[in-house]
Amino acid sequence: MTGPRRRRYRYRGRSRYGSVWRNPAPARFRRESLTERVLILLVVAVVLGITIGLILPRVNGGVGRLTGRYTATGDAAQTLQSLTVDDHARPGRQYRREAFGFKETDEDGNGCNVREDVLTRDLTDLRTTTPGGCKVASGRLQDPYTGRTIEFVRGPKTSSAVQIDHVVALENAWRSGASKWDTARRYRFGNDPFNLLAVDGPANQAKGSASADYWLPENKDYQCSYVARQIAVKDKYSLSVTSSEKQAMLAVLHTCPGQPLPQDR
Fold first, then answer.
1. Where are the domains of the chain?
2. Over the stretch 210-253, which tens digit does the pLDDT of each residue have?
3. Per residue in 218-253, is it b (16+ CB within 10 Å) or e — as a string?
4. Nearest partner of 219 among 171, 124, 150, judged by Cα
């Protein structure tokens, strides 16, 4: 039989009371304990972060309703209230941009595609490539989305500085009811000047297909007009909104009491 295991001690030198020995186990225990505490704190932080992420939007929404943040007046707000709210839209078919035939129709019969028509409408100091022709060679845009002035010059590397935006994005329209339309109605929507604006190219790219709850123009002076136009387009084509989209629109309209709808000319 062997005797009980003897603890191993580490020699620490001499003191005035003689040799001093130390058991290394407590230090190792302290290191392990510290590691465990750090891991526990990390787990708590992750759980707390997830919880805040889930609860905070609901809290903010509730606070907004209590403080009147989502109350608004005017034709735009009134029309918004009449739109169908659908949070569970299930388009029957996969979205295809080409289904809207952008630039493939000529509704006014002037021989120009809708991009040229919108550039002609929205730019100033306009010049065309040929006298009386359709193609815009150059012009100046006071961009509604950024508030900046853009000098447009037609060319392979410069034309994209000004792009034509669908105010209600085509994919948003598809999810909001356009997936059930026939081809003629989709083409009419895709080429409707009422839903088209000449805007800053990078701003248009940043927007993508986002709705008002995910993207608004950086030019705050234009946000009310932007939301009002989205509402007018959705009303014209009987498109739906989501609860989140509607709430974001109301929050914008709250800042501009009496906001009118743009006229469809």
1. 20-67, 74-253
2. 999 999 999 999 999 999 999 999 999 999 999 999 999 999 99
3. ebeebbbbbbbbbbbbbbebebbbbebbbbbbbbbb
4. 150
137-173: pLDDT as tens digits: 999 999 999 999 999 999 999 999 999 999 999 999 9
DSSP state letters, 10-41:
EEEEEETTEEEEE-SHHHHHHHHHHHHHHHHH
What's this model's pTM, rounded to 2 decimal places? 0.75
Instruction: Name every residue whose Cβ is closer than 8 Å to that of residue 217 and which is 6 or more positions away in sequence.
Output: 144, 145, 146, 203, 223, 226
Q: Evaluate whether 154 touches 138 at the Cβ level (below 8 Å).
A: yes
DSSP-assigned letter for residue 143: -
